[in-house]
Write a structure and sequence with these properties.
With 359 residues, the chain is α/β, with parallel strands linked by helices. The chain has 3 domains: 93 residues, Ubiquitin-like (UB roll), CATH 3.10.20.30; 70 residues, Roll (Ubiquitin-like (UB roll)); 156 residues, Domain of unknown function (DUF4445) (Nucleotidyltransferase, domain 5, 2-Layer Sandwich). Helices cover 26% and strands 26% of the residues. It contains 10 helices and 15 strands. It has a 6-stranded mixed β-sheet with strand order 12-11-10-13-15-14. A hairpin with a 3-residue loop joins strand 1 and strand 2.
């Protein structure tokens, strides 16, 4: 009798990973649930042969025609299966060869430094707000905007909702002298004096993610870190991941990307709430998946992007855990397979300014 939902225990050895899952779950999916990334160039379609595992014991689905064609008779005799085509029907013990596990990527995070003028979108001001009195009982925001006008000359009239939530307590705790971050005329963050403003630059590659922490007052790079793009467990190339989304799994690719990126940001900066601005680039598919946009049309002629213009979105709206009022800026995409990462490279190297042929 086939087990009921979540009654199956899958034991992956020698990694020592165990996971409960429902009957009918593929071993590839069970490995993902267990946090054990298996190689899957084809994204689980059954034709790359990279997710080879050996079922030691337990109840699994019958061999498929694809496995009989792809695997050697000796492999079949020893219990080898393709994890993407093998489904759990009870408790299973699985041996995972090292060759089937995703190898740790060597991360290249630095290159030639290119000097560019530091022109931050978010500007920082230290302001002293006049406390309200019986004679002048104006709101905290009105008094804050008046103080910012004195400091910056800007007619600020709006603040992010999360700023309004924190402003009363912060002003009174800090004796009415605070740091304020302005993006245009919007107050996107307020903080104590000791918390300096930070910026974040991220390149989401198909294989790797690189992140850079920047001092928003000087433009200096303070820290650099990177990690493997966790989406690689769902396909090693862009087209495999686009194919994976055809199974209505786009949200999962977005979720694992954001989880990996938030972990990376926390490693880079233990106090990510100090990050008041962010810029993200990547190829068009990575750009869309970061924003939670559909990517199916990128894999079908005429390969149309959802948006090619620059995008500005609140970090909290895409699930990036930095200052809650901060924005994320995404550079424009050129086409379905020429993304914002290319635009960033062109801007950084000045290729758009040359009249000569250049590589």
């Amino acid at each position: 009798m086939i087990a009921s939902s979540n009654d199956c225990l899958v034991d992956f050895e020698p990694a020592g990973c165990r996971v409960q899952c429902a009957a009918g779950t593929s071993l590839l999916e069970a490995a993902r649930l267990a946090g054990l990334p298996l190689a899957s160039v084809c994204g689980g379609e059954g034709f790359c042969g990279r997710c080879l595992v050996r079922v030691v014991s337990g109840a699994e689905s019958a061999l498929t025609a694809t496995e009989r064609d792809e695997l050697e008779p000796e492999q079949l005799a020893e219990g080898f299966r393709l994890a993407c085509l093998t489904r759990v029907e009870g408790d299973v013990k699985v041996d995972v060869p090292l060759t089937s596990r995703l190898a740790t990527q060597r991360l290249e995070l630095t290159g030639s430094d290119v000097e560019v003028p530091f022109q931050p979108t978010v500007t920082e001001y230290i302001v002293t707000v006049r406390p309200p009195t019986v004679q002048d009982p104006r709101s905290d925001l009105t008094l804050m905007c008046a103080a910012l006008a004195r400091a910056s000359g800007l007619a600020t009239k709006e603040a992010d909702h999360t700023v309004l939530q924190r402003l009363p307590g912060l002003l009174r705790d800090e004796n009415y002298t605070v740091r304020a971050s302005l993006r245009g005329t919007e107050i996107v963050d307020v903080r104590p004096l000791k918390q300096h403003p930070l910026g974040l630059a991220v390149d989401i590659g198909t294989t790797k993610i690189a992140a850079y922490l920047v001092d928003m007052e000087t433009g200096a790079t303070l820290a650099v870190d990177g990690d493997t793009n966790p989406q690689i467990a769902y396909g090693e190339d862009v087209m495999s991941r686009i194919t994976f989304t055809l199974k209505d799994e786009r949200r999962r690719l977005t979720a694992v990307l954001l989880a990996g990126l938030n972990d990376l940001v926390t490693r880079l900066c233990p106090t990510p709430q100090q990050i008041v601005d962010a810029v993200v680039v990547g190829n068009t598919a990575m750009h869309h998946l970061f924003l939670g946009l559909p990517v199916r049309q990128l894999g079908l002629a005429p390969y149309s992007a959802v948006v090619s213009e620059p995008v500005d979105v609140k970090a909290r709206d895409v699930g990036l855990r930095i200052a809650p009022g901060a924005y994320v800026h995404l550079l424009p995409n050129v086409a379905a397979f020429i993304g914002a990462d290319h635009v960033a490279m062109i801007l950084a190297t000045g290729l758009d300014q040359t009249t000569e042929t250049a590589i």
